[in-house]
Design goal:
117 residues; mainly alpha; 5 helices; 80% helix
Amino acid sequence: MIVPILILGLALILSYIGSRKHVSRVQFLFVLMFFLLGAVSVIFPDFSTRVAERLGVGRGADLLLYFAVLCGVLVAANFYFRFKDNERILSEVVRQLAIQSPLRPQKPSATETAQPR
């Protein structure tokens, strides 16, 4: 009973990600590959164990954990590079705005200079 629910959940998440406009084809293909591997490991649980044994990991659950950690690192790196790119773009926009409309220092008024500090 749990297998159809998991497959339906994977399909819904994949369709939501595919409908997003800011996801590139490479990112979508990577997510599709990830979800297909997830679906195969849900439908055929012994498959991940056999692949893990061939890779020298031991258990299929350990292999899935290592794969999930690798995906987490890739997501974190993607966020970092996007943040750095946005930071660079914002700095350039602010720099251009400062060049186009500089603020000139104003002379203090007579009331401001007469007040003791």
